[in-house]
Design brief:
The protein is of the alpha+beta class and 338 residues long. The chain has two domains: 121 residues, no CATH class; 195 residues, no CATH class. The chain contains nine helices and eleven strands. Strands 2-3-4-5 form a four-stranded antiparallel beta sheet, covered by helices on one side. β2 and β3 form a beta hairpin. α1 packs antiparallel against α2. The longest helix has 20 residues. It starts with 8 loop residues before the first helix and ends in a 7-residue tail after the last strand.
Length: 338
Amino acid sequence: MQASTIKNEQDLLVFHIQTLQAIFSKRILPHLTPLQQQTRLQHLKVLAQYAQLRDCPRNYNKTYRTPVFIDEKGRYCAVGYLMLHSGKKNFCEAVQKTNNYIYIRQIENQEFSEWQQSSGLSLDELAWIQPAYSPVVKLVKWNPQTLHKTPVFLDSVSTARIYLPEYDHRDIFRLSRIFWGTIVSLDEVKEIAKTLIYQPNWDSIPNDAIKCAKVYREELYISFDSSSRVAISENDYQDKYYSCVYKWSKSQKWELVLDLSYSVAKNTGDLPHIYSLFEYAGKLYAGGGDTDFNSYLAVLENEQWKEIKQNFGGYVFGIVYKNKQTYLGITHPPDGFR
């Protein structure tokens, strides 16, 4: 086949489906019954419609390529879409709940076997139709001069060559599943801090959900999420939420150095949470985002945090180095994530 290079994964998946639809349409299969032949043709028409949607599932939760039967926004994989249009919605939703990342050949279910046999499509063909999806990670070439400019993201094929989540940053995909909880344990923080000359007073550390930690210029920085309930009247209260960074300073005490907080009761908007602390060109950066997936990025300059007003469409999780190039990494949690 003659085909140009396809750089976007969604375009690649569409090409995959369209190609198989064309191949399967030309096959002569005399062993099929007339009803199977008719059902097969109907499925191939539905498969062509599916390709036109150009909206395959996204892999939000796994750090490796994997099938996704139905993603968090309700996007069906190609085989799931065929079953949906065969009246098998309940079966598809059951697969999503019990084993959403299953390969077609691994499905051991009488209902599925009966559907496959009546579909006119072989198990080999269904397995061929089913693709795997890359993790949802975006990379943008980055240096301080690119800030405040429209970010230019790498295509998904180039990203997959540069960034391997299972080797590079195993923890970032926990951002897709954890909002108000600990990402980094205290033991992990202690391991990060073991190079410090003056060890922190761990008994006085804020007792909150730790998101990330970083040693920078012989001082330990830790990002926390916290909450408190404040009485505003005898029968009313107000929940207040915080995302903040403390440091164990050279004066050997914990200091609050960055504080992002908002009040649910006052409905003052959704401020971001800090999920990463990383160093670039001798400066410390804090990255993260809010629950509407707007990015947050700030840099520490002259003992002051300066917010960088730029949205990358997801959570900033840090810097990726490859082939003498520097990339800013962005991950996007599930669409229904709050």
